[in-house]
């Protein structure tokens, strides 16, 4: 559940061709996603889960559209690390809890939420989200159940996911917009890769806060920024403050000593997780804490003398 939350999105895949298991998992990993859901809607689903679990040890694969205890058992034996069902079936939930396997049952009503709390669940699937009133309905119906977090799905895509993610009770958004079945049929993995990158870009919302340096010109700063964009695989938008050089300085709202590329982000903990999936770790001794939450974090990455600092937008 923590991995799903740090990722922010849970891609849902319905795959008919078993041979597409490996390229699908590879393209997800290359674009910064490590948790995926494969639905049991096809005859090949169990074999696909098994192949991903076997050959991609760093990928957390779960089984979706689980409709019975037998489905859950088969998926777990194949290598599924979590179970997702469209509705609330206490038998499936209790079976998964006995197996110590995380389970996301679908809920919609206060009655189902109360049942989930009674069974000790902390995270549930909210389905079908948009069809029943979307975020407005979720905020209203979730209010009495302070311990529950939600993974909304159903009508959610890149256009509306940020509004859900900005609600603190939402752990992540799930959906098939990243891995649309029709795209899989055409083997257009570049399209899947592009949609994945754009979704992550929208969630993290990296913006250039400043580039601070002691150099002969701002050209060095722009060069370093270009190298960083290649690392994160999508452009850094906006310029809220300024570039610095020896001959051209400008006062900032905040002061940053040293040579830094400073990026603001919508969700600093998700941004840190994004870089850690790329083996770029936090400099723990350089983290800046404000009010118990990270306001700024220095990453263990240098590009042409520039250190990377993330700040919460």
Helices and strands, with pairings:
Layout: H1 2-7, E1 9-13, H2 21-30, E2 35-39, H3 45-55, E3 60-64, H4 69-78, E4 83-85, H5 90-98, E5 103-107, H6 110-118, E6 123-126, H7 134-142, E7 149-152, H8 161-165, E8 173-175, H9 181-185, H10 189-204, E9 207-212, H11 219-232, E10 237-239, E11 260-265, H12 268-277, E12 288-290, E13 293-303, E14 306-312
Parallel strand pairs: 1-2, 1-8, 2-3, 4-5, 5-6, 6-7, 9-10, 11-14
Antiparallel strand pairs: 9-11, 12-13, 13-14
Q: What is the mean pLDDT?
A: 88
Number of helices: 12
Helix content: 25-40%
The CATH topology of the largest domain, please?
Answer: TIM Barrel
**Structural class designation:** alpha/beta
Please give the CATH architecture of the largest domain. Alpha-Beta Barrel
CATH class bucket of the largest domain? Alpha Beta
Number of strands: 14
Shape: globular
Number of domains: 2
